[in-house]
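ok so heres the complex, two chains, lmk if somethin looks off
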Amino acid sequence: NAGVTQTPKFQVLKTGQSMTLQCAQDMNHEYMSWYRQDPGMGLRLIHYSVGAGITDQGEVPNGYNVSRSTTEDFPLRLLSAAPSQTSVYFCASTRVRTSERDTQYFGPGTRLTVL
Amino acid sequence: KNQVEQSPQSLIILEGKNCTLQCNYTVSPFSNLRWYKQDTGRGPVSLTIMTFSENTKSNGRYTATLDADTKQSSLHITASQLSDSASYICVVSRGSYIPTFGRGTSLIVHP
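and the predicted structre for the whole thing:
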């Protein structure tokens, strides 16, 4: 299994541009989520999905959209990039959302810079 | 407010020594507490998961403890190795799997 994969690894955008961060998992996990990690702060939940066709907002959803058309893929869209969205983005997946014991697997991250 | 506080912020130890990292939380209701290791430039990797009824969990040289009454957890690393140099993150989840992440403890192991 490849686990959780993310593309691209690095990206530079200009203010106002849009882009999609890709995330895929091959473990047939129900639950997928997106986080951002900023210096000096803990990871913060942006959006999550409990299954294909179901998404919900996390702690910091503004400026981001998600969709989940398949179990495997969970892309994150930046609608109009702003410098405040400069961050490292992590995608993660867990087998079952409601399990207290399931391991959460993280992807390698996408480092995004918005100029 | 749901918070997870970790201490120390950073720690330097010599190879072969033991160390203990602390995590205090105010998250409620409590579902589970997880410790992760994050190497520089990589995603976090799960070390331990503990639910309310568990007070200790080991994973090789890593041992986590949980005191749900005082809302404290610790991660003890035994016989440290150079590869233990990383950030260690404490995460506490509420009932619907909404996680609150600590800022992490940066550990450097010197030869």
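quick notes: The radius of gyration of chain B is 13 Å. thats all i got rn
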